[in-house]
Specification:
single chain; 5-stranded parallel sheet; 67% helix; 47 helices; 860 residues; disordered N terminus
């Protein structure tokens, strides 16, 4: 008869068990095939594996093979040695590791006496000397058959055989849940719902599964059960730690862990698979689990180790937890750890909020966690609540975390479009509650809102701070922003890029009104250093500078890059992805998002989308006062509203912007891009005198930086083009200069306008080709030959449907000309132009004008 182990899992039954038996037998294919081919051949073999790996099932299959061949099979330790030695019967012994020493010596004597048929199944522990000697003798003829866990492919096959989801992803999740232990895989398939299998297991195991585990766990001795409980709670599989937790001796722990490993309840890292851990937690008394957890928490707190993984399962049970110093301190530490890990993918700052709340419910004073809770709430995007919590701490002179609360409040105020209020708070803090970078953050807000003299004074009187990464980044940030207003553009950029580099190691722990990377990228955009802006933002995203609070800001600034280059497809895709990932944007981020949206619609000539963006822009501008960092979206909105002939509502904001720039001394780096957009807006509404005024201001700024120089030249050339004074070489040079400073769309627009207005029929194709090249379309022959497949090939094929004259007509219509103007330019009648457009619409299978324009933009 068989000899059950004290830690042997109860055998599973049913269809699922039979399915995994079929899968598991692949581990012993050669052995089964050899027996089936010649059942009378003498054979000794050892099958070894942990509990639940299919040893008994394999022996049953081998016994069935022998019996079908007419062979007598003995499976009891009470065997007749003479019968086995004579060859009249085959001996199959399960759980050989539990056989007595005498029985093992008797089996060895059989093997020594002569050829016999004996197959043993055993675990790797316990492994008495007699069994080791016997296995070594058997292994001289054939290797030990080592049974292993099921692989993903095998589990997928088993799932399909059980009419369950059998895709690879489901199989991978089920393998993670069960550790690939065949008995656990079978148990999961038999007891879990298909949706639970597809999700990779159940959070709460059903009663039938728990009943089987209960039978197995009740057979464990006290030490083994205690070890399994501690490991399920989250203890490391270290004998000394487990001995401390269980108040036992290390040798006892070593023996218990070996028993659990041999029983198939631990994986190769001595960690219970999730299915086993959940069963253990569900079947262990709550008080016992809490006692084990308290010891683990105390050990980790004393060593400064992570307690967050241990406490995460307790979230939601705070109301039944006792007031306990260890639990309260652990929840407090876990909140801090969740807060520092909030920059990690998949980690929600809401976990930190709940941990701090649990710390209070288990006995910690609320005032000790309020500031950090405010930080976590801010990271969650709940700015009003974060500000209320922070204000409560700031007003409490006895609070220990006032500096953190001030930083939270300053960051939230800036996100809500109140940088001046944030500056005042930081300025007050520099006098009363010091923290690294307080004066620098005040300088940032003061300059941003036009209070340059106060900022300079604060820069001069700034107290020395410890040379940390945070203080260094903050100081460089303030200095760089000041240089952007009252210095050379290259000097400002260098300082700001260094500030961004200093802030990178801080990552998500950086808590400031704005990040050095965001400021550096904004300054780079304002002086034509597009590649530098791209590099800074990429590094900030990789380092997750500022954590969740600034992820959206960095991504929005990055979308300006394809927009300015005229790649509206990429800009639209990235903006859509960002908006789908964000629940609610802050006022500052919303202003940038709606300006980008308007810029995309304007460049795509999508007037319906532009009108919708205008509606959202009015709300965004009302929520966010004009400051230095709002000039970029403000300029984009100025052009968009001009195209809609609805720019009057934006005039107060433009006036405030110029008042801000005047207060800062009209810094060219910040003023030139806005002047350029206002020039474009004036041209759109045909207010050429106002465009000339803006261009004259640009001329005076031309010497400051490369972008200002490019804008000044382009503005002058554009005004000449509007007067039909087109010098093709001059236009192309100015357009390419715009392209060089990142304004590819503007450069293409200048060349296109010149092509529309020139009277030189020989110059027009060259200017149109220049416009196409600057906008990334390439020359016509290249576009057609490059379409080897996919959408590019389809576009080239459609473009070939148009004649040269139809392309000329289409390009001029896309440029904004009426049929009459196109006719005048090409010396044909407006009726002929209309006829060409009708043929184009038919050839491109367009049902309306909007669809035609979209397809022509894609082709040309």
């Amino acid at each position: 008869m068989n000899h059950p182990s004290a830690t042997r899992p109860a055998p599973d039954s049913g269809s699922a068990a039979r399915l995994w038996e079929v899968a598991q037998h692949r581990e012993a294919t050669r052995l089964r095939q050899e027996i089936a081919a010649n059942p009378n051949k003498p054979l000794t073999a050892v099958v070894r594996g942990p509990g639940g790996y299919g040893k008994t099932s394999l022996l049953n299959l081998l016994a069935r093979t022998y019996r079908e061949a007419g062979t007598t099979v003995r499976e009891s330790a009470e065997f007749d040695a003479a019968e086995i030695r004579s060859g009249a019967a085959v001996l199959l012994l399960d759980d050989a590791h539990l056989l007595s020493a005498a029985t093992l010596r008797e089996v060895e004597a059989l093997a020594v006496a002569g050829p016999v048929r004996v197959i043993l199944a055993c675990r790797s522990w316990p492994f008495p000397a007699e069994l080791a000697r016997l296995c070594a003798r058997f292994a001289t003829g054939r290797p030990v058959v080592e049974l292993a866990e099921l692989g993903v492919t095998e589990i997928s096959e088993v799932l399909r055989g059980a009419a369950a989801p059998g895709d690879i992803e489901t199989a991978q999740r089920l393998r993670m849940f069960t550790g690939g232990v065949p008995a656990l895989v079978a148990r999961a398939i038999e007891t879990l719902e298909p949706r639970e299998l597809a999700a990779g297991g159940a959070e709460h195991l059903p009663r039938p599964a728990l009943d089987r585990f209960d039978h197995e766990l009740s057979a464990l001795d006290r030490t083994a059960r205690g070890c399994l409980t501690a490991l399920a709670v989250g203890a490391e599989p270290h004998p000394a730690l487990l001995a401390t937790v269980l108040d036992a001796e290390s040798p006892e722990i070593t023996t218990a862990v070996a028993a659990l490993r041999s029983a198939g309840m631990l994986d190769d890292t001595d960690t219970p698979p999730p299915m086993v851990a959940r069963a253990v937690l569900a079947l262990t008394d709550w008080q016992q689990r809490l006692a084990v957890l308290r010891v683990l928490l105390r050990v980790r707190l004393d060593r400064g180790g992570p307690v967050l993984p241990l406490l995460r399962p307790l979230l939601g049970t705070e109301s039944v937890l006792p007031c306990d110093d260890t639990l309260a301190a652990a929840f407090d530490a876990a909140g801090g750890q969740a807060l520092s890990r909030s920059s990690e993918v998949g980690e929600s700052p809401e976990v930190a909020v709940r941990m701090f709340d649990a710390a209070v419910s288990t006995g910690l004073p609320a005032s000790s966690v309020t500031a950090r809770k405010a930080w976590a709430v801010a990271l969650s995007g709940r700015f009003d609540e974060a500000l209320r919590l922070a204000d409560r701490v700031i007003a409490d002179e006895s609070a220990s975390d006032r500096a953190t609360a001030i930083q939270v409040a300053a960051a939230v105020l800036t996100h809500r479009g109140l940088p001046e209020r944030a500056a005042e708070l930081c300025r007050w803090s520099a006098r009363h509650v010091r923290w690294p970078g307080d004066s620098s953050c005040a300088v940032l807000g003061l300059i941003c809102t036009g209070r340059l003299d106060e900022a300079v004074e604060l820069l001069r009187t700034e107290a020395e701070e410890p040379p940390t990464s945070v203080s260094g980044a903050s100081t460089q940030l303030a200095s760089g922003l000041h240089q952007s207003v009252d210095g050379a553009a290259s000097e400002a950029l260098n300082t700001l890029v260094r500030a961004a580099s200093l802030a990178e190691p801080v990552g998500g722990a950086l808590l400031t009104p704005d990040t050095p990377a965001a400021v550096a990228a904004t300054v780079a955009l304002h002086c034509g250093e597009i590649d530098l802006a791209d590099s800074v933002l990429r590094r900030a995203v990789t380092a997750d500078s500022g954590g969740p609070l600034f992820r959206t800001r960095h991504r929005l600034l990055a979308i300006w890059l394809p927009l300015l280059r005229g790649d509206t497809t990429a800009a639209k895709r990235e903006l859509g992805a960002l908006l789908s990932d964000s629940d609610e944007l802050s006022p500052r981020d919303r202003l940038h998002a709606v300006a980008i949206e308007a810029g995309i619609a304007s460049r795509d000539n999508d007037m319906a989308a532009l009108g919708q963006a205008r509606t959202r822009a009015r709300r965004a501008m009302a929520e966010h006062p004009v400051d230095l960092f709002a000039l970029l979206p403000l300029g984009e909105l100025a052009v968009a509203t001009a195209r809609l002939r609805d720019g009057d509502w934006l005039l107060p904001q433009l006036r405030q912007a110029h008042e801000l720039l005047a207060a800062l001394g009209e810094p060219p780096l910040w003023a030139a891009p806005l002047r350029w957009r206002e020039t474009q807006a004036a041209i759109v509404v045909e207010e050429y005198d106002r465009a000339a005024e803006h261009t004259a201001v640009l001329d005076r700024m031309a010497r400051h930086n490369q972008l200002a120089a490019a804008l000044a030249t382009a503005g002058t050339v554009w005004l000449r083009v509007l007067e039909n004074e087109v010098d093709p070489a001059e236009v192309e040079s100015a357009a390419r200069t715009l392209h060089a400073v990142g304004l590819a769309w503007d450069g293409a627009g200048l060349a296109g306008q010149a092509a529309i207005r020139t009277t030189d029929r020989n110059a027009m194709p060259a200017l149109l080709e220049c416009a196409r090249g600057l906008s990334g379309k390439g020359n016509r022959s290249q576009r057609q030959s490059s379409g080897a497949g996919g959408d590019i090939g389809a576009a080239a094929d459609e473009a070939q449907l148009l004649s040269d004259r139809e392309r000329e007509v289409a390009e001029l219509v896309l440029g904004g000309m009426t049929y009459k103007q196109v006719g005048q330019r090409l010396f044909i009648s407006a009726k002929t132009v209309e006829h060409h457009i009708g043929r184009i619409k038919q050839r491109l299978d367009c049902s309306d004008r909007q669809q035609l324009l979209e397809k022509l933009r894609s082709l040309l």
